[in-house]
Amino acid sequence: MEVGNIGSGNAANALARMINQRVDIDIPKVEMLKVQDFAGTWSKISNNLFLCWSHISGLTNATVLTIFKINEIIDIISLIIGEESKIEVDKIHKFNDFPELYQSALSEVGHILGSHYTNALGNLLNVRLMTDPPDVNIDSGKNLVKILKEDLGLVKELSLVITTQIILKEKKIQGSFLFIPDLDKLKALLDALSEFQIEI
């Protein structure tokens, strides 16, 4: 739970500074889930989603995944670049359908959210964690399970998932932020968390 609170809180603060608006997070949920289960309500959305993920390496291997509805991430990028969007949402089917300015901003948002989450986790545990450059995809919710398995490599029967909702009340925007550690290296992460709890 502490991992989700500090990591997502740091990422949300970074987003708030970028858009100059308040960004709230809810209490993180920590669950052991099948891929099709933690895809959850997102997989039932027929419209396209913005998916951005970064792989983390170091003491633990993990993936940080950000999900927004396509129209809502466009609203966020419009706030960042300071101009009202003229993009027709129904014409956006893949990342390259965005203008170059939006492509750059979307990649930057993904990088900043992922790296701030990772840095907060590394600082919390006093370990070095490295974040790969983000991958971005635009696809419909019905393809989410396939993307999680094929693109993110989540092929195990169960995954530990820490999910935090990101909420921009002024824009009525809500996204999901997921931290998914590799179960094969989970013990190292839990040991580091135990040491952190003993120290405090």
What does this structure look like?
With 200 residues, the chain is of the alpha+beta class. The protein has one domain: 3-Layer(aba) Sandwich (Chemotaxis protein chec). The chain is built from 6 helices and 8 strands; from the N terminus they run αββαββααββαββα. Strands 1, 2, 3, 4, 5, 6, 7 and 8 form an 8-stranded antiparallel β-sheet that branches. β7 and β8 form a beta hairpin. α1 packs antiparallel against α4 and α3 crosses α4. The mean pLDDT is 82.
Q: What is the average of the pLDDT values? A: 82
CATH C-level: Alpha Beta
The proportion of residues in beta strands is 25-35%
How many structural units, i.e. domains?
A: 1
Q: In sequence order, what are the helices and strands, one letter per element? A: HEEHEEHHEEHEEH
Q: Percent range for helical residues?
A: 40-55%
Question: Number of helix segments?
Answer: 6
- Fourth-level CATH superfamily: CheC-like
Looking at the structure, what is the overall shape? globular
User: How many β-strands, per DSSP?
Assistant: 8
* CATH topology name: Chemotaxis protein chec
Largest sheet: 8 strands, antiparallel
The helix/strand class is alpha+beta
By oligomeric state, this entry counts as: single chain
What's the CATH architecture?
A: 3-Layer(aba) Sandwich
